[in-house]
Write a structure and sequence with these properties.
two-stranded antiparallel sheet; mainly alpha
Length: 164
């Protein structure tokens, strides 16, 4: 009976963990990120890489250095010697840099500008509301002073009176 309660509490705790907002948001972000990866990879492979290839070489994967000779394919089909495949490392690095640039300039930068504009609009709207509130307060003080002057001809009170 104790194990059943413990099992229920573990399951309840696991359910609470899964239902936390940040866990669900993270799961959604991973799924969207995986789908977005295909878009970015297609963009890099289909547009950016051919443009870079038109300027330079189309594939860097063939570049390598031989560390221990002889570097060749033996009669059994296995490579002999020790090769350093620096071209594939350079290709992966360039692909990463190009992908990061595409994501930054096509997604992050425009989104940052959009959010900054939204924040500026929100602050401008709040600023207008504060100015209106201050102006209304000043107007009410002037009305109070005018009423006091009409009643007794004296000076206006310095503190709040009758809710004003």
């Amino acid at each position: 009976m104790v194990s059943e309660k413990k099992k229920e509490s573990v399951l309840a705790g696991f359910k609470a963990f899964l239902m936390r907002g940040n866990v669900v948001d993270l799961a959604v972000a991973v799924v969207i990120g995986a789908a977005f990866t295909n878009i970015v990879n297609s963009l890099v492979k289909g547009i950016i890489s051919p443009v870079v290839g038109a300027v330079g070489t189309k594939s860097l994967d063939g570049y390598k250095s031989c560390l221990k000779a002889p570097c060749a394919i033996g009669p059994d089909g296995q490579p002999t010697g020790v090769e350093i495949l620096w071209g594939s490392v350079l290709n992966a690095t360039l692909t990463f840099v190009i992908t990061a640039a595409v994501v930054y300039f096509l997604m992050v930068l425009p989104m940052s500008k959009y959010l900054a504009k939204q924040e500026a609009r929100r602050k401008a709207k709040e600023g207008v509301q504060e100015v209106v509130e201050i102006t209304e307060l000043e107007l009410l003080k002037e009305i109070r002073d005018a009423l006091v002057a009409q009643r007794g001809g004296g000076t206006a009170p310095t503190g709040p009176r009758n809710g004003f």
